[in-house]
Amino acid sequence: MTASYEGVGKLGFGAMRLPLTDPDDVTAIDIEQVKAMVDEFIARGGTYVDTAFVYHNGCSEPALRQALVERYPREAFTLATKCLAWACASKEEAQACLPTSLERLGVDYIDFYLLHNVGGARTAKFDEYDMWNYVADAKERGLVRHIGFSIHDGADVLDELLTAHPNMDFVQLQVNYLDWDDPVTESARCMEVAAKHGVPVIVMEPVRGGRLANLPERGAAVLAEADPEASQASWAYRFCLDLPGVLTVLAGASSLEQMQDNMRTFQTHQPLNEQERAAIDGAIAALRSVDLIPCTNCGYCVKDCPEGVKIPVALNLLNLERQTEDRAFAKGLYSWQAAEGPASKCVQCATCEAMCPQSIPIIDRLAEAVEHFEG
Fold first, then answer.
1. How many CB atoms lie within 10 A of CB 55?
2. Which residues form a coiled coil (predicted)?
3. Whole-structure pTM over 0.85, yes or no?
4. Domain ranges of the chain
5. Has residue 7 got a pLDDT over 80?
């Protein structure tokens, strides 16, 4: 399928964590600060703005209408939004997301429309609600310019989906330097799969939910020694910006200062040189220097688990907690990534331990996951 991506800026604005006037109310978006952030973004050459039906409990899209759509000509920006069909109670509710998003945003069409967080058991809902055909028809009717999906699963699942749905114009993947060779996220392998299918990539989580902008000292020190003036976030964005096949890299911002730093990186960035790549490798090594669980995501442990526990997911998030020293962040990911098979479902049958080629004491590690993430 031929698609035009003209006018898409290489660094995008992710509107998932906008500034708030009340930190305890995710709907209390600071519109005036968002306007200033949008102005900075557009003035510095940004065009691609990403939101979703569910962001800020449905208030991100109306905020962008006020801060962006009503203040700039339509040709000055590219809009992306998403449908979280698996969280909808019916086909009718899922298919009502697009017209609602169009109304909230105050536009006649969406440039990039995504089926949001496809993968695992969630894919069945997109199939049941006929969302693949629905978005293709919306594209034919001119309500959407490009159709694609976001996914957090590994390379094999991505390959299956792109094979089953060859009309997808793009895919949105979690890519960052910490996840590049991670055995669960498989950022590098996912990029290879997208390239095999000839599908461009929109990068999400380049700063790993902000964790790569707030590194533990052992990782931060490596990057600071290489370049004391560079922000930690800039290292993460630069790692992604020049990857082959990347259409745009989504940069979240919760303040005008963060937006200004993002756009400085965008405007002044050069490809990473050999010394800078070595610095990133050093930071990764430092982050992983703690005692990590040696899980390779081979999947043997889950094949005969009677309770369907998401063992590799739980172990990977325990490792993420150890690397980033941020339990709250890992716990937030666990709440949905392990929802279909939480560690607390383990009945201690030890079938998994008998199958593990790494001899991991899985029962003990699952108990640790329950203590850290389910309490």
1. 23
2. none
3. yes
4. 11-281, 300-373
5. no
Q: Rounded CA gap, 44 and 66, in Å? A: 20
Tell me the CATH architecture of domain 11-281: Alpha-Beta Barrel (3.20)
Q: Average pLDDT of the chain? A: 94
State which amino acid sits at residue 269: H
pLDDT of residue 364 exceeding 60, the answer is yes
Q: Cβ atoms within 10 A of the Cβ of 268, count? A: 8
- 121/108 Cα distance (integer angstroms): 33
| Residue 209: per-residue pLDDT | 83
The pLDDT of residue 298 is 85
- And the tokens for 94? 């899922």
pLDDT in tens, 95-147: 999 999 999 999 999 999 999 999 888 899 999 999 999 999 999 999 999 99
pLDDT digits (tens, 9 = 90+) for 226-270: 999 999 999 999 999 989 999 999 999 999 999 999 999 888 888
Q: What pLDDT does 3 receive?
A: 66
SS (H, E, C) the chain: CCCCCCCCCCEEEECCCCCECCCCCCCCECHHHHHHHHHHHHHCCCCEEECCCCHHHHCHHHHHHHHHHCCCCHHHCEEEEEECHHHCCCHHHHHCHHHHHHHHHCCCCEEEEEEEEECCCHHHHHHHCCHHHHHHHHHHCCCEEEEEEEECCCHHHHHHHHHHCCCCCEEEEECCCCCCCCCCCCHHHHHHHHHHCCCCEEEECCCCCCHHHCCCHHHHHHHHHHCCCCCHHHHHHHHHHCCCCEEEEEEECCCHHHHHHHHHHHHHCCCCCHHHHHHHHHHHHHHCCCCCCCCCCCCHHHHCCCCCCCHHHHHHHHHHHHHHCCHHHHHHHHHHHCCCCCHHHCCCCCHHHHHCCCCCCHHHHHHHHHHHHCC
85 in Cβ contact with 97 (< 8 Å):
yes
**pLDDT for position 297:** 87
Instruction: Tell me if 265 sits within 8 A of 253, measured CB to CB.
Output: no
Structure tokens at 168: 């997808």
Residue 130: partners with Cβ closer than 8 Å, 6 or more residues away:
91
